[in-house]
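Record 1 of the preview.
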Amino acid sequence: MVDRGASALSLPDDWPAHPDPILALNRMGSFDWDLDNGLFHMDAQAHEVFDLRPDEWDGRPESLAVRVPPAEGHRLDTLVAQAIKDGSENYGAYFRLRRRDGSLRWTHTQGYIRRDGTGRPRRIIGIVRDATQELAESAARRDRAEADEARRQQTNVVELTTAALAHARTVRDVIDVLKDTHGLTHLGATSLVMGLVEAGRIRLIAEGPAGSFVSGTRVTRIDEPFPMSEVVRTLTPRFIESPQEFADGYPQLWQHITGLDITSAAYLPLIAQARPIGAMGLLYSDRRGFSPEDRNVLVALGSSIAQSLQRAMFYEQEKDLATGLQQAMLPRTIPSVPGADVAVRYRAGTAAGTLGRDIGGDWYDLIPLPGGRVGAVIGDVQGHDTHAAAVMGQLRIVLRAYAAEGHTPATVMARASVFLHELDTDRFATCLYAEADLSTGVVQAVRAGHIDPLIRQPDGTCRRVAVEGGLPLGLSAEFGSLEYPVRTLELDPGHTLLLCTDGLVEQPGIDLDEGMQTLTALVADGPDDVRKLADRLIEVAEERGGDDDVALLLLRRRGLDAPQAGGRLQQHVAPGDPEALTQARHMIRAAVRAWGSGARDDEIELVADELITNALMHTEGAAIVTLRVLTGTDRRLRVEVEDSSSALPRRREAGDDGVSGRGLLLVELLTDVWGVEARGGGKCVWCEFVVPGRN
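->
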């Protein structure tokens, strides 16, 4: 047809230009609709917009039906009628018209309603224009905005998932993050399958939707015809865009999952450090196909998941190693102790995100000793790593050896400190060693920088026992201080001795004393049975969490149903140490009363004190006092005092004004028998008392 539009017009020379060329140059046609007579006048450009020749137009609006589809015409009529009815001055609308070649294009119209003085509508004057390019550009902008928003949402999911994966410590944590509502389901996936590569096979660790497990796929070979095997072999993602493609590519798998309504799937190799460590599959039930953007996002997400998964695998391997090492260092079994109920527990710390921190230097030990005695040990080597555990293992062994050799508690601790110092390690250790004679209930405790023990009575009363203590092991030798004061305690039948490491006491925001008070109250309110009490304390530690390990040892003395033969106690008394002498006297008093010496308690205490005093006064070294019960024809209590002097004691008469010389006379008078034995470079002065047997 002849071009009657703007292309036939030249730029007008007059200024300002007439409205007709202005409209034509902007490809707008005008119309004037006389509502009284129903005539509809259009200019040449309007004819061009409607693709009508002048001879095809009769001036009536109904004739536009040849170009305006019925649905569009009805919508326009309704719009104009509503504008007239509402008293509006103008209206505007987009509509489609059909060109003479049958194609549809978008058109825009805008009309001004002229009314008379009474408000009656008389004419509508307006414009029409081709809006195809405008709407196409708008649609393109909208599509771009929607695509950008979709990418933002996908990127946001990737960022959120990656951030959540940063806190995943185990493989199970990784899977839980991906299955979380803020995880991959936001990408539209219905479910997740995942497998790890192990020794040339793929082990399934996440099996998709409930009830979807396919028998025989728990462990599969990499060369089998499954999609996860394929992506591991090829290191290339596999995007399955339709059920038919799934069925054609993997018929062996598809026949088992046909009922799951899977419409597409994405399988990704999980690659870390240039090697496949596993594969992941995302199953969809409401999509077909993957855009290039979708594929890029999923590949990027797969890379992030692979890194997190490898980190989790390393953590679990390290944890297994740490747990195995820790268990190897701790006693495999705790010996049965006649006369006592014993419970031990260990809880590893939980230092989040740090490999190797689930192992520490905390330990416990129970050492059977001659004469019905037992040594209880609790300790903590500085640090939380394999080195701390290795040092702990060595220290536990040597401390057990020193105790088994028969050394006094103070000597055991001093030698252990020297040993740790000579290891040439940068670690020190705290320790508490308690040697208990279960026949008498006498406990000798030494402390090396460790927290104090607790004693719980049968009625539930619990108290902290202050032990003076010395420097931590390893530091005492370094600073030249190997003194470890001994605190003698009495553990009556039914009483429980509690030793623990500071992981059970320390809590964020509170000091040690407050933590000990909290623990004391918890023990007092706990069950009577030591095993149940130990379980309860560990439960509290688990609930509280925390980075530090917890080692716990409970020893409850049972009542003795029968006399215990061979009871033995020993105490080292250093010269010039009044505290040691006081502790020795306390031990003697507790022993003779616990062993049942009848009316001879005071006699035994007096003689033992005299022998110890003589040894300290007349020799230059220390004295070792030993008490034991001997059974035979008579039940006897024997007191031995050893010193380093070979000079034998002499009995002599004391003058009226003498202050010495009465010691051996007193011994001879009060004891049933006494004597002196040479012992290597020294001697032993001994005496025996016949005491009544127990009923």
